[in-house]
Specification:
Radius of gyration: 21 Å
Structural class: alpha+beta
Strand order of the largest sheet: 1-4-5-6-3-2
Oligomer: single chain
Number of helices: 2
Shape: elongated
């Protein structure tokens, strides 16, 4: 069984796959701007592999919190964060609208 693949452009920071930044362990034979085919295990997002370079590993950049995290769990967490952000932005937009329109209510009394 083969691993799924994704194409990613190599930048000075690394390569981004599924919204996660990965850094090659060794840059030998790689050039900035290269489009690389990266193989990844959906059950473990802590690393991907450069398919054209003998499956050289690339580790997830530190601080992204993907160690031992599956693609499904990562996507669910991202979806939850987006929903919370939309809710927070939507709530502040409604509050600003009420205040600008002079509508009475809890928002006005709370100020």
């Amino acid at each position: 069984m083969s691993l799924p693949r994704a194409a990613a452009k190599l930048t000075r920071k690394g390569a981004r796959v599924n919204g996660i930044l990965y850094v090659p362990a060794d840059m030998e034979g790689l050039f900035l701007g290269d489009i690389c085919s990266l193989a990844f295990d959906p059950a473990d997002l802590s690393r991907v592999y450069l398919a054209e370079h003998d499956f050289r590993p690339c580790m997830a950049a530190p601080g992204q919190g993907v160690e031992e995290l599956s693609l499904t769990a990562y996507q669910a967490a991202q979806k939850g964060r987006r929903a919370m952000r939309r809710e927070a932005e939507g709530g502040s937009h409604i509050r600003q609208h009420r205040l600008s329109e002079g509508h009475p209510g809890r928002d006005r009394e709370g100020l």
